[in-house]
From TrEMBL:
Boundaries of every Band domain copy: 63-222
Region (Disordered): 1-26
Any one Gene Ontology cellular component term annotated for this protein: plasma membrane
Key words, A-Z: Membrane, Transmembrane, Transmembrane helix
Protein name: Band 7 domain-containing protein
Entries under InterPro entries matching the protein: Band-7_stomatin-like, Band_7, Band_7/SPFH_dom_sf, Band_7/stomatin-like_CS, Stomatin_HflK_fam
Any one Pfam family match given in the protein's UniProt record, by short name: Band_7
Location(s) in or outside the cell: Membrane
Primary localization class, coarse: membrane
Alphabetical list of CDD domains matching this protein: SPFH_stomatin (cd03403)
Species of provenance: Poecilia mexicana
Length: 293
């Protein structure tokens, strides 16, 4: 097969992939080059429209001059083809009656909520997740020529992407890695909407709702974990206290007078707390010392 046959095969393959009348971001110039494709009849109609406008001046001037706001762009169609030069605006632009019409495209950032989606996670847990998407039209020509309703298509694609991305994560990853999930969604949506002339600027996961039974199970698990930590802390405290008592007993055992002073301090403390008769055992060495005197 020669090079000409290879190139024809390649062009047919690309046509099957993209479809008729579909363009990517690299074909905008070809899409906007419409003057050479309207034909002789088209030029006759354009000339007749121009003549009609001149005859009906100055009334027709109000039909031919249009205004585009700062945040808008106008795509002009002449006999069904996009006019050469691409999007017009902001400001004034001129159209011919009967042969031209135009579509305004809003270039501001648009925000929409992703409705709560029931998602089955990787570890077979059903959760309800919603989010918010920020996008804007980056190329007005592609947004008009390649997609019927760019806003509706982006909304549906965001819902599908949310389910697909979360389906590859387990519950722990969904709860802890929201920023990574949002970044993956933003990259996927941006790649998919590039041929629509749309730029997805930001995606955020708003809320993750768990089933009621799972919430109770997680709460019981967290409570059991806290109780276990409390028991460990109490055991460590008792162990430290026992070590301190052991060290104190060794110190007191070396000095009998220290033990007697400890007895007296304990008696004083008990007597101050309750007004009652208390029988307190005394060490034998104290009694022996009293007998001697």
């Amino acid at each position: 097969m020669n090079s000409e046959g290879v190139s024809m095969t390649e062009s047919k393959r690309r046509e099957r992939q993209s479809g008729p009348g579909r363009y990517n971001s690299h074909d905008v110039e070809a899409l906007e080059d419409a003057d050479s494709g309207i034909g002789l009849c088209g030029w006759l109609l354009v000339g007749f429209s121009l003549l009609l406008m001149l005859v009906t001046l100055p009334i027709s001037i109000w039909m031919c001059i249009k205004i585009v706001k700062e945040y808008e762009r106008a795509i002009i169609f002449r006999l069904g083809r996009i006019l050469k030069g691409g999007a017009k605006g902001p400001g004034l632009f001129f159209i011919l009656p009967c042969t031209d019409n135009f579509i305004n495209v809003d270039m501001r950032t648009i925000t929409f909520d992703i409705p709560p989606q029931e998602v089955l996670t990787k570890d077979s847990v059903t959760v309800s997740v919603d989010g918010v998407v920020y996008y804007r039209v980056q190329n007005a020509t592609l947004a008009v020529a390649n997609i019927t309703n760019a806003d509706s298509a982006t909304r549906l694609l965001a819902q599908t992407t949310l389910r697909n991305v979360l389906g590859t994560k387990n519950l722990a990853e969904i709860l802890s890695d929201r920023e990574e999930i949002a970044h993956n969604m933003q990259s996927t949506l941006d790649d998919a909407t590039d041929d629509w002339g749309i730029k997805v600027e930001r995606v955020e996961i708003k809320d993750v709702k768990l089933p009621l039974q799972l919430q109770r199970a997680m709460a019981a698990e967290a409570e059991a974990s806290r109780e276990a930590r409390a028991k460990v802390i109490a055991a460590e405290g008792e162990m430290n206290a026992s070590r301190a008592l052991k060290e104190a007993s060794l110190v007191i055992s070396e000095s009998p007078s220290a033990l007697q002073l400890r007895y007296l301090q304990t008696l004083n403390t008990i007597a101050a707390e309750k007004n009652s008769t208390i029988i307190f055992p005394l060490p034998m060495d104290i009694l022996h010392s009293l007998k001697r005197h």
